[in-house]
Amino acid sequence: MSDTFKKLTAVRGMNDILPGQSAAWETLERLVRDWLRSYGYVNLRTPVLEHTRLFTRGIGEVTDIVEKEMYTFTDALNGESLTLRPEFTAGMVRATIEHNLLYDRPRRVFAMGPVFRHERPQRGRYRQFHQIDVEALGYAGPDVDAEQILMLARLWRILGLNDIRLEINSLGTPTERAAHREDLIAYLEGFKDQLDEDGRRRLYSNPLRVLDTKNPALQAMAEGAPRLLDYLGDESQAHFDALRARLDDAGVSYTINPRLVRGLDYYNLTVFEWVTDRLGAQGTVCGGGRYDGLVELLGGKPAPAIGFAIGVERLLELWQQQELALDASECDVYLVHQGEGAARQALQLAEAIRDAGLDVIVHAVTQSFKAQFKRADGSGASFAVILGDNELAEGAATVKHLADGRQESVAFAQLPAHLVTCLVAAESNEGPATGNTPADSV
Ligand code: HAM
């Protein structure tokens, strides 16, 4: 079929977020911004496109992301190789260096938005997905490591989620990893024949990732492999112990997963993931860790750092499994009207009601009152305000309380204040307009 006649659809693995879903996104974003602010994080927004070399250098040549998942193209105008960001961290660090943000103090920064990875789409795995990315730059830890983990535990509480468990590990220093790597390669060489193509390819380039195998036949091999934790020197061990002590102080439970290595090359010391069993195969809701070498690797003065990213789609799926009563109403007041004079008055009244702080939708096409009321009901508004010939003649609108059908006549001049009073009264009777949101249960 020629391209002209092909049906137009979204790109595979990239989703539209429809009006029925966006209320949950917006509520989540609002809660997340308040949560980040309460720990002193400020927003840093970087471009969606970066030079490809930022990611090859930052994330590592021999990672799944750089090897096969990046959306990379040549800018036809100047021949530069550009890549849609597959994660935030490299770009956040680049911006920090470029604008010299660390010259006088450390920084706590965050970003939210779409990232792009060319993976095979399935439940919880998309090609455009969204991350909440949080980075503490210039902090050596372990206090900030613990703070970030406590912070995430708090977010799960704010959202009313209790089925997410924490796994932690320490990747030590590059020197400790090198010693472990040598022994690991020697160990894995003994299993060369049983490794699949990926495993054999990675044996010398990224042997830690070979242990990530999903192949049940190789589980025993992975279990018996030399553990990086046994190669930690005194300082790394002290860092890990101090992190654990702080988590214990706060009563945050965790398991140590010696095989947790993460899929990006920049990590050292602390790494962690939050995982749930309620999302099928893609159960990692959040991943992060320390990346003390990245600022220098990308051209800055050496500075320690730690961060994490939450997968928004996965978090929302988990959140929605809890059947949350989210406020999906489009407005407080729906204005229905009939006739030219009423239409003109409706626009004026709607502006006055908005001045009083309420959200108003004015019905837009000529339809019977019956059809208009149906839309008013569907909008989730608390009130329909009705304007017809009688109302115009009397200078008073009819207000219909959509919860119980009660009607009353209110003079135009008093209408905005009256609606505000009724709404406040209704909310204090029923509790907050959002009903039983998780925020209320914190
Ligand atoms: P990551 O583990 O690659 O880490 O991604 C973080 C989270 O993004 C994952 O835990 C998952 O929830 C979500 N995610 C990843 N891939 C997909 C996908 N294809 N579809 C849907 N969700 C996905 C990073 O990106 C690091 N930059 C995190 C970090 C920040 N480390 C230090 N600072």
How would you describe this protein?
By secondary structure, this protein is an alpha+beta fold. The protein has two domains: 19-172 and 232-320, BirA Bifunctional Protein, domain 2 (2-Layer Sandwich), CATH 3.30.930; 333-427, Rossmann fold (3-Layer(aba) Sandwich). The termini are far apart. The protein is built from 16 helices and 16 strands. Mean pLDDT is 91; it is low at 431-442. The strands form three sheets. The protein has an eight-stranded mixed beta sheet, sandwiched between helices. Bound molecules: histidyl-adenosine monophosphate (HAM).
Index terms:
alpha+beta; disordered C terminus; five-stranded mixed beta sheet; binds histidyl-adenosine monophosphate; BirA Bifunctional Protein, domain 2; elongated; 16 helices; 2 domains; Rossmann fold; 39% helix; eight-stranded mixed beta sheet; 442 residues; single chain
Fold blueprint:
Blueprint: H1 19-37, E1 42-43, E2 49-51, H2 52-59, H3 64-69, E3 72-74, E4 81-84, H4 89-98, E5 107-116, E6 128-137, H5 143-158, E7 165-170, H6 174-189, H7 197-205, H8 207-210, H9 219-224, H10 234-249, E8 255-256, E9 268-275, E10 284-290, H11 294-297, E11 305-311, H12 312-320, E12 333-337, H13 340-355, E13 360-362, H14 369-378, E14 383-387, H15 389-394, E15 396-401, E16 407-411, H16 415-430
Parallel strand pairs: 1-5, 7-8, 12-13, 12-14
Antiparallel strand pairs: 2-4, 3-4, 5-6, 6-11, 7-9, 9-10, 10-11, 14-15, 15-16
The site of histidyl-adenosine monophosphate (HAM) has 27 residues, from strand 6, strand 10, strand 11 and helix 12.
